[in-house]
Design a protein that fits this description.
single chain, alpha+beta, 2 domains, cytoplasm, MORN, cytoskeleton, MORN repeat-containing protein 5
Length: about 120
């Protein structure tokens, strides 16, 4: 993780950019080490939130989903025919796990501010 921008008394303060370890990036205003005010948060999957942040959380703004990429992979050249069903099922399960709507649901609910005791209640 890396931050470039303004500092006051060892805290992020003013305008700056924060680069997260997972590839996400925030560019915008900071107050007392928290995202506060106008900013842009680009997620690792390509989706982008642009708008207002309040106490390190998304407040009012617009979320633009990443464009879906579709491709076709011919596995017959690298996987023997007798293993195609097993490999295909494993690949399908891995893709579903990775590209699930749970990720978007988590981002939506994570933006809600709640007490630590309520964090696991919906």
């Amino acid at each position: 993780e890396r931050y470039t921008g303004e500092w006051i008394d060892g805290r992020r303060e003013g305008h700056g950019s924060f680069f997260f370890a997972n590839g996400s990036r925030y560019v915008g205003d900071w107050v007392c080490n928290q995202k506060q005010g106008d900013g842009l948060l680009a997620f690792e999957d390509g989706s982008v939130y642009q708008g207002t942040f309040d106490k390190d959380r998304m407040a009012e703004g617009k979320m633009r989903a990443s464009q879906e990429l579709y491709s076709y992979i011919d596995l017959t050249k690298i996987v023997p025919a007798e293993q195609m069903t097993v490999v295909g099922a494993a690949l399908r399960a891995a893709l579903i796990r990775h590209n699930t709507s749970i990720k978007q649901s988590y981002r939506y609910f994570a933006a809600w501010e709640c007490e630590a005791t309520d964090a696991f209640e919906l």
